[in-house]
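Lecture 7 notes. Example A: sequence first, then its structure tokens.
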Amino acid sequence: MEYLAAAVVVVGLLCMVNLLLMVGVIRRLRKLAARPAYGLPPTDGLAVGERMPEFAATTTAGEPISHDLLGGPALVGFFTPGCEPCQELLPRFVARAREFHGQALAVVVATSAEDAAEEAEHLAGVARVVVEEPGGALQDAFSVSGYPTVYVIDADGAVAGTDLDALALVQA
């Protein structure tokens, strides 16, 4: 009888340990599910159909840029140095930005102009480039909190898509 009681206690303890481990696994899975997928903006970014927000900035060439000057259709991308997904997406963004004939905006988010120099130089030939610090005005306007983030803006100034494959939806 003593062995039976000891066995029940051991099984009960094992069940409790298993329950605690499962709670930890479920918490971890929920955190992972909340993270954005590659190439898509975080869940709090602009949604398809929303209007392009009002913004104003100065490009690295010293030109003013705003929502009125950019117009649509347009391509808007946010990148940051040292971000592996950004480096993977950058060549595709450059290739697609050529289709917009100057109606592309690239925002390089870095703590200093020196940190952003390589990306800004790479993008300068196909897009208007703005370099800003983390938490800058353009990031706030476009609700960007993860990188890379890409918005395709249609001719009416609304978000047509949040990845480079959405280019098929607009006429450049």
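Example B, a different protein, same format:
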Amino acid sequence: MMVNPTPPRILVLSTSLHPESRSRVMALAARAELDALGAQTAWFDCRDVQFPYMDGHAAGSHEATVALRTALGAADAVFLASGIYNFDVSAVAKACLELGGRAWDDKVVCIACATGSMVSFMAPLGLANSLMLDFRCVIVPRFPMATQAAITDGSVTDPETARRIREACAMTVRLASVRQGA
């Protein structure tokens, strides 16, 4: 197993539109951790764009879609942060999957979620399945989850949640480095 000496390029994708988003806080914590691990990080915040409806036609040439595909295309791995709603990732996270299309191909993907309770721990599996089966992504087998109690005043304050984010970031870097060298 050869590891590429070039630091992996990791896109941190924050999919929440909520102004006080806990998943965005997780994404920011992951970005800091990935930077500390020596990864080349890029940031894409879905609050900064207005995605079109997926119509199977004009949506592919929309400027927000092009920006997402460009960001995905430049990355070796993606750290995707989403809220959980009705035991599933957000509609925006799903839109990123659909609009990103083939730009998702062969990426290492880590999924982190803000949730109302830990009973939602299986919620990201539908997204993970689509990424694996449709785009041949390698899914990081750690899903950092954070409840409202884990985040205070815009930062991750729960030590266990912080540890899970660190471990997921370390595994994302490791897997992306191996994939680069393959």
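Note on Example B: The mean pLDDT is 93. The chain has one domain: 9-181.
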